[in-house]
């Protein structure tokens, strides 16, 4: 299943005088998914010290074709976009830095940016996009999102939030955990975070979660704007050009510091989607300054 591809750090001007040739590999997909990768590449090209050469991966002998192409490019780094490119890059084992993006990954020896949104981006918006929240519940798969929940637990203390996380190894177990969470929440006081995860609620359980959330005045937020269209209060989703620029910055840092170990970041270049009907139900009113920060609102106006 293709995920909805769904902060910018200050640029260093000293590197601009040393151009870096970056090979970008990404899957050959049709619109609208192809537009996501094109926007990410535009973001990479915004870095003044980088020249981009790009290659679309075919579904057949992708690894061999990519290897042949890379050998002729004289690139100093590789950016692999999407799950297929991530696998190809690992198979190639090149002797130049490989940076991964536009896919949902856990730490695995490569540097890059996961599609999983930074928990701090959510926590810092509680109380402005939402009513006051002191407890946040979440259900997650440890193998996929354990690193993110560990980060979230540290950040929760910074924001005076009690994070209550429930592990689930399968979608079936996740349903049981969501039902348990919905029995625990306090009406009008708590929030439920739906991370990008293999045990995130699908179309079977999500309607039930949203129905009970409405009845209990429970704040629900996620990384998927389609959830917001269906009724969650808000979502944080990728700013694709911002993601591209951050990947470029990581390339520069990797070349400058070759002995530094791999670093995987959560996504910090984000846009905001809000369901205004849900916000009204929860008694949240946004001022003009905050409205300007919102990229997408639901229900969509016709």
Automatic annotation (TrEMBL):
It comes from the Bacteria. Keywords: Signal. Gene3D superfamilies: 3.40.50.2300. This is ABC transporter substrate-binding protein. It comes from Candidatus Reidiella endopervernicosa. Residues 1-16 form the signal peptide. It holds the Pfam family ABC_sub_bind. InterPro entries: ABC_transpt-TYRBP-like.
């Amino acid at each position: 299943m293709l995920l909805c591809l769904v902060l910018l750090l200050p640029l260093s001007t000293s590197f601009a005088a040393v151009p870096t040739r970056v090979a970008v590999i990404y899957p050959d997909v049709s619109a609208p998914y192809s537009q996501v990768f094109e926007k990410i590449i535009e973001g990479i090209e915004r870095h003044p010290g980088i020249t981009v050469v790009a290659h679309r991966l075919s579904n057949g002998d992708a690894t061999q074709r990519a290897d042949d192409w890379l050998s002729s490019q004289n690139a100093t780094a590789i950016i692999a976009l999407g799950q297929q490119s991530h696998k190809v890059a690992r198979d190639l084992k090149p002797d130049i830095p490989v940076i991964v993006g536009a896919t949902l990954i856990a730490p695995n020896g490569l540097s890059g940016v996961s599609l999983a949104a930074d928990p701090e981006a959510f926590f810092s918006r509680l109380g402005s996009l939402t009513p006051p929240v002191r407890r946040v519940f979440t259900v997650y798969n440890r193998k996929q999102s354990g690193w993110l929940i560990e980060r979230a637990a540290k950040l929760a203390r910074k924001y005076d939030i009690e994070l209550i996380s429930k592990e689930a190894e399968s979608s079936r177990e996740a349903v049981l955990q969501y039902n348990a969470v919905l029995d625990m929440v306090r009406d009008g006081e708590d929030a439920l975070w739906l991370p990008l995860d293999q045990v995130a609620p699908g179309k079977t359980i999500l309607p039930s979660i949203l129905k009970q959330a409405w009845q209990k005045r429970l704040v629900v937020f996620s990384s998927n704007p389609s959830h917001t269209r269906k009724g969650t209060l808000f979502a944080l989703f990728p700013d694709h050009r911002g993601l591209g620029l951050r990947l470029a910055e990581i390339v520069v840092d990797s070349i400058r510091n070759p002995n530094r170990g791999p670093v995987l970041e959560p996504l910090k270049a984000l846009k905001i989607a809000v369901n205004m009907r849900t916000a009204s139900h929860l008694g949240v009113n946004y001022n003009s300054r905050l409205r300007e920060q919102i990229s997408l609102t639901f229900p969509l106006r016709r």
